[in-house]
Amino acid sequence: MEENKIKLAFGRKNYILMLVGIAVLAVGFIIMTLDNEQYGLGFMGITLGPLVVMAGFIIELFAIMVKDKAHEKTQD
């Protein structure tokens, strides 16, 4: 029965970090849409929102690069 187990590319920790990254990205884009200045040229649209989006992409990159130790043990 153990031989039929599905092997995923990432571990649980990676997938949780990816979901957190997607949520941070969504929050960043929502922040950019909430800017009341004309053409989105206020603080939220031109500074805060893009910084939050950049943080979301950094979290995504980290989620891909980090190794889940529990996942490595199950692969062996």
Commentary on this structure:
- The chain has one domain.
- The chain has 3 helices and no strands.
- The chain has helices spanning 12-33, 43-65, 69-75.
- The longest helix is centred in the C-terminal third of the chain and has 23 residues, at 43-65.
- It is rod-shaped, with a radius of gyration of 18 Å.
- The two termini are 16 Å apart.
Write the layout of secondary structure elements.
Layout: H1 12-33, H2 43-65, H3 69-75
Helix pairs in contact: 1-2
Tags for this model:
single chain; 76 residues; mainly alpha; 0% strand; rod-shaped
Concise overview:
This protein has 76 residues and is mostly helical.
General shape: rod-shaped
How large, in whole angstroms, is the Cα Rg?
18 Å
Low-confidence blocks of residues: none
The biggest beta sheet reads: none
How many structural units, i.e. domains? Answer: 1
For the secondary structure, the number of strands is 0
Give the helices and strands as they follow along the chain.
HHH
Distance from N terminus to C terminus (CA atoms, Å) equals: 16 Å
Binned strand content: under 5%
Counted by DSSP, the helix tally is: 3
Quickly give the structural class: mainly alpha
Helical fraction: 55-70%
